[in-house]
Recover the amino acids of this structure.
């Protein structure tokens, strides 16, 4: 039995089931629903890997591997579906999405037979499956194909994107790339590449970061999430390691000078570090955020300077013209538009616009019944274009 592999599987399944719960109680959108099923698939693999690490016979290891592969089969499917939904190209990729789900169902049926997983071998003190099933190598090819294609869609959308959306795609791409780079190590022993499958740990980290970003910031501030997680791990790894190392390396020395109560010293260091930990973390977090968002500080300063100019504008037209240019040039968005309400006609008319070309920055005719206005009234913070698109599609109004 391999207790480390089991522990990693237990951490993975517990974490992802918690993320599934958070996604269940959050506001439902298509992106969140697909990501919920992705986390559920990863959780199933976590349960399977926990049982694989504890299996004492080849037959029990095969059962555990088949259970875990129920999730593995659909990890790539849900990832690809998430990627194209996030990139707003789901309609253009319907054929590939259907193919992804059909091949997943095909391999799910085969998973219960020796044509998929047929035998194991003892390595790293546990029984891991071998790629001797007739269709297992083909499954790995399709699985890898969907993962690579999903990242390819993200990369192409990144090159075509601009502003906030472009940054979102970049961080989503990098996060999933790290997760899958570690996760694919679980396939290596099946092909007799004897590298310990450590990847469950990287999957945990990126699932947490992406889920947090989707729920809290809609992926707008994933840099902030990554920075906070990194600082937290760095600070507490040091604070927890120091007393542990003091105890392990200085046990004999302290025992000679302090007697049987020698363990009070590393224990006291641990208590002291636990007390200063939050303060150190808070200080380091603020410094990291300052470095990370230095660009944001610059455009905040630009907007502040603009507010000081407000008294010097002689007309509303001059003010609106200047405002859309300041926002577009400093905030990093592709286009800015200003609408004003006309009470007599019960509609909104375009006052000024700046950025992109005329085709993309076209005027949108707004009235009180327009779904965009309902969306604006229902939202309490920033929102993304794909959320408006999704809302209009669900209501049957494509305006």
């Amino acid at each position: 039995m391999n207790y480390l592999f089991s522990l990693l599987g237990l951490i993975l399944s517990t974490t992802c089931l918690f993320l599934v719960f958070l996604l269940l109680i959050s506001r439902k959108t298509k992106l969140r629903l697909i990501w919920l099923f992705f986390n559920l698939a990863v959780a199933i693999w976590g349960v399977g890997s926990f049982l694989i690490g504890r299996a004492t016979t080849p037959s029990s290891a095969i059962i555990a591997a088949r259970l875990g592969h129920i999730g593995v089969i659909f990890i790539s499917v849900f990832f690809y579906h998430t990627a194209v939904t996030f990139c707003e190209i789901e309609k253009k990729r319907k054929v590939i999405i259907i193919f992804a789900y059909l091949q997943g169902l095909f391999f799910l049926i085969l998973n219960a037979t020796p044509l998929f997983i047929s035998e194991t071998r003892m390595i790293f003190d546990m029984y891991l499956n071998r790629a001797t099933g007739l269709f297992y190598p083909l499954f790995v090819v399709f699985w890898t194909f969907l993962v690579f294609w999903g990242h390819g869609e993200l990369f192409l959308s990144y090159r075509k994107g601009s502003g906030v959306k472009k940054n979102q795609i970049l961080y989503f791409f990098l996060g999933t790339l790290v997760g899958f780079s570690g996760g694919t190590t679980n396939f290596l022993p099946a092909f007799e590449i004897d590298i310990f499958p450590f990847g469950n740990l990287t999957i945990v980290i990126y699932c947490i970061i992406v889920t947090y970003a989707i729920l809290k910031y809609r992926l707008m501030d994933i840099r902030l999430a990554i920075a906070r997680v990194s600082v937290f791990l760095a600070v507490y790894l040091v604070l927890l390691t120091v007393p542990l190392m003091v105890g392990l390396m200085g046990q004999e020395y302290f025992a000679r000078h302090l007697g049987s109560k020698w363990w009070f010293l590393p224990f006291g260091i641990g208590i002291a570090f636990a007390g200063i930990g939050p303060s150190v973390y808070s200080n380091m977090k603020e410094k990291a955020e300052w470095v990370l968002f230095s660009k944001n500080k610059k455009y905040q300063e630009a907007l502040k300077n603009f507010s000081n100019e407000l008294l010097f504008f002689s007309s509303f037209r001059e003010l609106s013209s200047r405002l859309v240019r300041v926002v577009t040039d400093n905030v990093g968005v592709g286009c800015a538009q200003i609408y004003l309400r006309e009470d007599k006609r019960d509609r909104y008319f375009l006052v000024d616009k700046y950025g992109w070309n005329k085709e993309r920055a076209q005027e949108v005719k707004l009235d009180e019944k327009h779904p965009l206005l309902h969306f604006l009234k229902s939202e309490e913070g920033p929102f993304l274009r794909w959320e408006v698109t999704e809302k209009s599609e669900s209501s049957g109004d494509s305006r």
